[in-house]
């Protein structure tokens, strides 16, 4: 389709605020949905008292990026207990990091990692929790205009199907983490994972899709494989592109989001069908939950076991 046709159809413009009686922010209707009620943090998120605990360090207002210049963001780094810096650790990166790192959230990833490591189910793993950027010269974070700017920046970083976010992680975030903590992270892409929810979920897939030489494990919760910045094209690309050496775990639910951008439950089912068609090592868990981490948190430990299992 020619660019002039896009303009004629209005597809070069952002979606309207409201059309057909529906808002482009209808995603709010699927948050904290009643379908989430059966889902609780997995048992592994409540370690026994004798389980050694890792350490989470917060790097506030980090602005060391040229890929996304003039942006501040908080980065949290989890180091497993008794980590031997001489031996390369496995890696998992979380988009929307605080939502995964919080000890009171639905996932509680550091606590789950503590449990799985103590049981000998996983190798020592460094977790990097990265928040989206916000303008370095912005006003108060609670200002509605600043919140809108931050949301647009998050979508720019996460929903774009370009190599940029992967380069941001590979060339900027990970070198910072290694230098700051004096650790070694594996170069083996089979031991490097990316995780996220919603736009962070499609971003996790994009990182591995664009950079399989660096990341080959994807965990996507309620991924936004919809037409925000063209994510609805992934099922075709998966079917039509030679299979890449990545492993993918998808999660969504019957009460996931419905907005002007698309149908999240259907989009994730379509992604799973495309992965099956193309012969990918993948798993799809479809429940009753809404657009939240409740279901993903309930199966988080099992997700990691499956994602990090040894090749058959």
Describe the model.
This protein has helices at about 5-10, 95-100, 110-120, 145-160, 165-180, 200-210, 235-240, 265-275, 295-300, 300-305; strands spanning about 20, 20-25, 55-60, 70-80, 90-95, 125-130, 135, 190-195, 215-220, 245-255, 260, 260-265, 280-285. Strand 8 (about 190-195), helix 6 (about 200-210) and strand 9 form a beta-alpha-beta unit. The strands form 3 sheets. Strands 3, 4, 5, 6, 7, 8, 9, 10 and 13 form a 9-stranded mixed β-sheet that branches. A two-stranded antiparallel ribbon has the order 1-2. A two-stranded antiparallel ribbon has the order 11-12. By secondary structure, it is of the alpha/beta class. About 35% of the residues lie in helices and about 20% in strands.
Please state the average pLDDT score.
92
β content, as a range?
15-25%
Distance between the termini: 43 Å
Tally the beta strands: 13
Q: Runs with pLDDT <50, length 5+? A: 1-13
Discrete helix count: 10
From the spread of the alpha carbons, the general shape counts as: globular
* Class derived from helix and strand content: alpha/beta
> Percentage of helical residues?
25-40%
Rg (CA only): 19 Å
Question: How would you characterize the largest beta sheet?
Answer: 9 strands, mixed
- H and E string: HEEEEEHHEEHHEHEHEEEHEHH
């Amino acid at each position: 389709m020619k660019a002039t046709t896009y303009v004629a159809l209005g597809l070069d413009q952002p979606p309207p605020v409201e059309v057909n009686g529906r808002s482009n922010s209808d995603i709010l209707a699927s948050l904290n949905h009643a379908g989430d009620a059966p889902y609780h943090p997995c048992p592994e998120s409540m370690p026994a008292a004798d389980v050694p605990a890792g350490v989470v360090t917060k790097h506030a207002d980090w602005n060391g990026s040229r890929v996304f210049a003039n942006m501040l963001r908080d980065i949290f780094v989890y180091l497993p207990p008794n980590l031997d810096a001489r031996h390369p650790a496995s890696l998992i990166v979380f988009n929307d990091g605080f939502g995964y790192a919080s000890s009171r959230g639905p996932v509680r990833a550091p606590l789950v990692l503590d449990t799985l490591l103590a049981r000998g189910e996983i190798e020592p793993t460094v977790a990097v929790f990265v928040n989206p950027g916000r303008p370095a010269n912005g006003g108060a974070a609670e200002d509605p205009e600043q919140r809108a700017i931050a949301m647009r920046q998050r979508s720019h970083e996460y929903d774009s199907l370009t190599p940029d976010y992967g380069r941001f992680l590979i060339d900027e975030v990970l070198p910072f983490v290694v230098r700051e903590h004096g650790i070694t992270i594996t170069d083996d892409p089979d031991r490097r994972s990316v995780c996220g929810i919603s736009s962070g979920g499609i971003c996790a897939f994009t990182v591995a899709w664009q950079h399989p030489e660096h990341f080959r494990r994807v965990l996507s919760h309620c991924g936004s494989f919809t037409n925000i910045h063209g994510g609805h094209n992934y099922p075709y690309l998966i079917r039509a592109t030679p299979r890449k050496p990545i492993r993918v775990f998808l999660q969504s639910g019957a009460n996931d989001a419905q907005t002007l951008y698309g149908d999240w439950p259907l989009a994730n089912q379509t992604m799973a069908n495309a992965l099956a068609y193309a012969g990918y090592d993948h798993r799809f868990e479809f429940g009753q939950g809404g657009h939240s981490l409740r279901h993903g948190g309930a199966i988080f430990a099992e997700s990691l076991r499956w994602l990090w299992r040894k090749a058959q």
